[in-house]
Amino acid sequence: MNAPFPSTGTSSGIRSSSDHRLPLKLLIAAPRGFCAGVDRAIEIVERALEKYGAPVYVRHEIVHNRYVVDALKAKGAIFVEELDEVPDDAPVVFSAHGVPKSVPAEADRRKLLYVDATCPLVSKVHRQAERQIEKGQHILFIGHEGHPEVIGTMGQVPPGQITLVETLADVAALPFTQDDALSFLTQTTLSVDDTEDLITALKARYPQIVGPKAEDICYATSNRQAAVKRIAPASDLVLVIGAPNSSNSVRLVEVAERLGTDARLIQRASDIDPSWLEGVGTMGLTAGASAPEKLVREVVDRLSEWRLVQEETLVSAEENMIFKLPRQLTE
Q1: pLDDT tens-digit map of 217-242
Q2: 149 catalytically annotated
Q3: Helix (H, G, I), strand (E, B) or coil at 223
Q4: Cβ atoms of residues 147 and 244 within 8 Å
Q5: Spatial separation of the C-alpha atoms in residues 225 and 125, rounded to whole Å
Q6: Environment class of residue 224 by beta-carbon count within 10 Å: exposed (0-12), middle (13-18) or buried (19+)?
Q7: What is the pLDDT along the chain (331 residues), one digit of tens a residue?
């Protein structure tokens, strides 16, 4: 489909000795998979289980990945949607996506032992929202309605002081004027390109609008989208490992498709239809920020059952971010 893409990574060579099969060049994006916030959230649940013993309740999926959730269930975690499902004497962990202020307030009222696994980059957006409200600004929040992170962030401020913006049509329909004190924030797992378009539209309509000092889209989301932009032009098909309710994973599919490359979201290797490989000489592979590397290797092994796979990793950024654990789990 396209000319071979220059490699900056390493090739791990041929993974099958069946010479009668057509070779499949597999371009694996880097960075991919777990980010620092996801690593931290999973470790929080595991340490809570070690410290308090099973069961430990988790409000909402700790991260959007069924494999991860099932593994933690096997260790004694119980996942619930609301606090009223948590017994009074049981510890509870809040997910990496963040929660509205009403949730820890209710936990305090019930004297529950809770651990907040909110990603520090999401917590940063929460603090920004509080500061903007303190300055008397109405917040225009760019995000996807119903996503846990959006619910959590909008729940940091009093009702009526924040408005969700999802599309350019939403921007056009806003009732505010250029005399209103306005600010904006964004969900951390959005499409970099989509968000830039929305921010440009907001600034054009409201020149007085104030934004954060640095963009809210997290480094992992940006890096994974940039990595897909690296592999997609050279690929006939891109596979993205991630859950349908994982915003950052869905955005990776969209990034590849915008570059004119067919892309599919899969949760496990078993989701792959061998017919997808027909006519595919080069395939791209990446994983959303909630997908473990084990699932990447599972996909490679599955592909090797059908084709002679030649792996090549294209590195577009290095990541070394580490977030501290809550003090209550380290003392």
Answers
A1: 899 999 999 999 999 999 999 999 99
A2: yes
A3: helix
A4: no
A5: 21
A6: buried
A7: 333 333 333 333 333 333 446 899 999 999 999 999 999 999 999 999 999 999 999 999 999 999 999 999 999 999 999 999 999 999 999 999 999 999 999 999 999 999 999 999 999 999 999 999 999 999 999 999 999 999 999 999 999 999 999 999 999 999 999 999 999 999 999 999 999 999 999 999 999 999 998 778 899 999 999 999 999 999 999 999 999 999 999 999 999 999 999 999 999 999 999 999 999 999 999 999 999 999 999 999 999 999 999 999 999 999 999 999 999 999 8
Domain shared by 135 and 172, yes or no: yes
Are 3 and 236 a contacting pair, CB within 8 Å? no
Residue 261 and residue 231 in contact, taking contact as beta carbons nearer than 8 Å: no
**For the whole model, what pTM was predicted?**
0.89
Is 189 labeled as ligand-binding? no
Is 35 known as a binding-site position?
A: yes
Q: Tell me how far the alpha carbon of residue 152 is from its chain's centroid.
A: 15
Is 165 a domain residue? yes
Burial class (CB in 10 A: 0-12, 13-18, 19+), 89: exposed
Q: Are residues 234 and 298 both part of a single domain?
A: yes
Residue 60, marked binder:
no
Q: How far apart are CA 133 and CA 292, in angstroms?
A: 37
**DSSP-derived secondary structure letter, 290:** T
Query: Within 10 A of 84 (CB to CB), how many other CB atoms are there?
Result: 8
Nearest to 43 by CA among 326, 320, 321: 326
Q: Does one domain contain both 107 and 132?
A: no
Query: Residue 321: inside a domain, yes or no?
Result: no
Number of independent structural domains in the chain: 3
Is 235 annotated in some ligand binding site?
A: no
Q: What is the DSSP letter of 210?
A: B
Catalytic-role residue among 61, 149, 311, 312: 149
